[in-house]
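Let us work through a complete example step by step.
Step 1: write down the sequence.
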Amino acid sequence: MAGKLGTILAVGSCKAARKVLHLLKRGGTTTPGKAAMFFDRNILAKTAEGVETIVVVGTNGKTTTAHMLERAMTAAGMDPLANRSGANLLPGITAEFTAEASISGHARRKYAVIECDEAALKLVVPLVNPKVIAVTNLFRDQLDRYGEVMNTLEQIRIGVRMVPEAILCLNADDSLVASLALDVPNPVVYFGLDLPVGEQKDAELSDARYCIRCGTEYTYSYHTYAHLGGFRCPNCGYRRHQTDVAVTAIRSMGMDGSDIELRFGTASEGKKQKQTLPEAKPHPDTEGSIKNTERKPEITGGSVIEHVHVGLPAVYNIYNAACAAAAFTAAGYDRQKILPVLAEVHSSFGRMETFDLDGVRVQMILVKNPAGCSQALDYLAAMEEPYQAVFCLNDRTADGHDISWIWDADFEKVCRDPHMLHAYVLGDRAEDMQLRLKYADMEENGVEKVNAEEELIEKMRKSEVPVFILPNYTAMLSLRAVLGRITGKDAFWKG
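Step 2: predict the structure and record it as tokens.
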């Protein structure tokens, strides 16, 4: 339905649906958007018009990075709109903008930060016309939905091409993400870690072992995790780009966060020159997707080092902080507004979120693919105190029906960890997880299958040590709802 009447009906139905669903204590994150789109398919273009928007996309870290940006913008007095519930498909994003608009469809807020699903980017960005698109990383995820990672990359590239004026904020350490700059006219800002973190196993490079341009195996000057690090193709010269915002030192890492040095501006003085790469024969899997052989010019500034505390633990949250800082400054906002927020930011729901269960510290860490899971397992393996672990695995549509990824995650590092006193498995595919732990050398009496969330809660209440829960997406939503109710935390849609 076109015209003013269609807009009024779209906005009105969205607001009414959300109000009713909230009264029923349901999220109201996607249904209101679907109601609005019934009356006006492109209502998002109207309700997002004039809003200065940062879009965050990527396999891991979208929610946390967007949360950091939202907190920084709020601290700067910008009152941004955000899809903090994590509803990141077109209906969910439509619901957020439309519910906040006037009945005539005019935006009431000037700023927004939105996390967006990789496959939905091409549907969302032409309607919201973002100022900045930040891409966190790319890993294999939900193979039955996305296919291989090259398909996910292409979905993002299609979206980026639709908004050539948007500033791209790209992870320089990820050879897949960085390749987005090779064939688009967008201005580019690069972020990353200019130093190695821990040790790297060759098997962990499987998501991007070979050059996206010519198919030659990359060499690395250093690694951070998975396929991220100082990559270089010895054949065609495609390599990690110089960073505009970078972690130059990690002073400490612990359960309560990390102390880092964050550089803004390029490491070397003077104007950077566009780098021209030699012609390269495309790899068969990427033929047609990389057309340009020139590196795009990027936004630069004077170099300054800031000492920053990141209030969330683990190396992937250091990446999230660097991405948020890069996107914030790329949008033209004062970096001094985001630096203190990085220290104060708390976990978003299910992502490093901590609960007090009758005196027992329970921490929930969402895992949904091999790279993210292995990082969470690294975090557990670094514990210097006893703990229990819970592994929750479902195979529902939102998770991806293919659970074979659990065999690529390094469960061995915790199953051999003397600090892990006991493990529980729960979920639709609990037995598959139990089998995976068995093959990771877990003692048979060291892992216990529980059949219901209530049973797990009672077992955790009796724990004398901290408990870490590693669920995939739908398992996280369900268990988090129970834990939130018991411990008095807000429902997930309240952020």
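Step 3: interpret the result. The CA atoms of residues 214 and 280 lie 6 Å apart.
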